[in-house]
Amino acid sequence: MDYPRESRTNPDDKTIGLIAGWGNYPITLVRALKADGYKVVCIGVHNHADPVLAELCDVFRYSGLAKFGRACGFFRRHHVNRAVMAGKIFKELLLQPGFIFRQLPDPHTIRTFLSIFFSPKTDFNSDTLLLASVRAFEQKGIHLIPATDLVPSFLLGRGRLTDRPITPRQWDDIRCAWPLTREIGRLDIGQMTVVQDKRILAIEGVGGTDRTARRGVSLGKSGDVSIIKIGKPNQDMRFDVPTMGMETLKAMVKNGISLLAMEAGRTIMIEPPEELARFANEHGLTIVALRDEDRLSDTCPFDQALITPVPPPKEEPVDRTPPGAGKSVPFTRLTRRRPSAGQAADLNYGWPYARALGQYGVGRTVLIRKRSVIEVETIEGVEAAVARGKESRCPGALVLVYRIANSDNVCEPLGAGVIEAMKDAKATLLAVDESYPMDRGALAEAADRAGIVFGTVSRD
Fold first, then answer.
1. Angle, CA 366 vertex, CA 361 and CA 370 arms, to 5°
2. Number of compact structural domains in the chain
3. Statement to judge: residues 167 and 287 lie in one domain
4. Are 245 and 269 in contact (CB under 8 A)?
5. Entry pTM
6. Nearest CA to 403 among 375, 431, 441, 374?
7. pLDDT in tens, 128-171
8. Which of 103, 129, 150 corresponds to the end of one domain?
9. How many CA atoms lie within 13 A of 400 on its CB side?
């Protein structure tokens, strides 16, 4: 039902629709829009949006994730022709078996998402899902625009936000992790890495920022740990833009993280910069916002706490697929059980991603589900990475083990323990680089007992 604060008015530029997910960002955005005189008509995603939005917005209603036709009708009844997205949607929910059917999708949702959910040729990446969501609204005359077009002051400028200077060691970590973080953004895997002493401790997957930060700190040594969080190349500013707010900084303090490096012009500040700077300074945190070209400097270019406003970087065409994507993977099956059509599609999709990450000395183990990367190993070991598949609540995942061409990454022989970890995580297929040290016979026997498909992949 619609909450009671509705008043139908003639359409004008001061009526804006909001699709609200989880977190404080939608709340901050509504307050800013109302202060600028906008009438806000909001759809809050069930089990995501904060109930306080019902009090802040002029019109509010909850809606399920698979009710796009209903949402469009709601917006049109309230004279909305422009809308914005704000807040997180938990992607791991979409990867759970039968999720879309439990949502009872309406006809418009079925027509829009049918090929994504059921075609083996379509990936399940965040941009694919979000662009389909944009199309679902635009087909009904509702145009999605960047929230920062309405409140440009939310964009983080370039420079150092805090008093604490960046140490040479931290600057080396930023320069080391920045290209990899940009690459995982290009591949639509995640937006964040955790780094210490030029070692990548964690890479964001479907688990999100807080879980990635906790894992990175647990794998590092005591001392400075840094987070690098940046947008994708050619970031679509309508959705999935990196954010920074008080909750981000509190999580840094809780997890023992000392530095946050973000991208100037492609980061949204959920609270005013002076509030963020004050909290960060009180807790000894360092926050810096860079452009790509800044990391080329041997030393940090910011010698004082000063933020300069900058526009988003110029957009350029970007290929979001790794080399070899779309080709059949040379998989040699070593078990009685054969891969299903869905498993074969996931394997063909996922192996080029494992290979692309391997060029950066990470990604020895990659978990794939529904043609989407859900977890990436860094230094914790194959079995520990597989166990995270259970934490991600994505049963049916494929486990891809790639031998990284890096002398610092010594490969421990793969044993039957990985099969036990896969059983516990409900993973269904193990594909291993043929050059990876392993006992193929023992793995095949254990996989057969567990009902898991196992085989090797040629490097050619």
1. 145
2. 3
3. yes
4. yes
5. 0.90
6. 431
7. 899 999 999 999 999 999 999 999 999 999 999 999 999 999 99
8. 150
9. 33
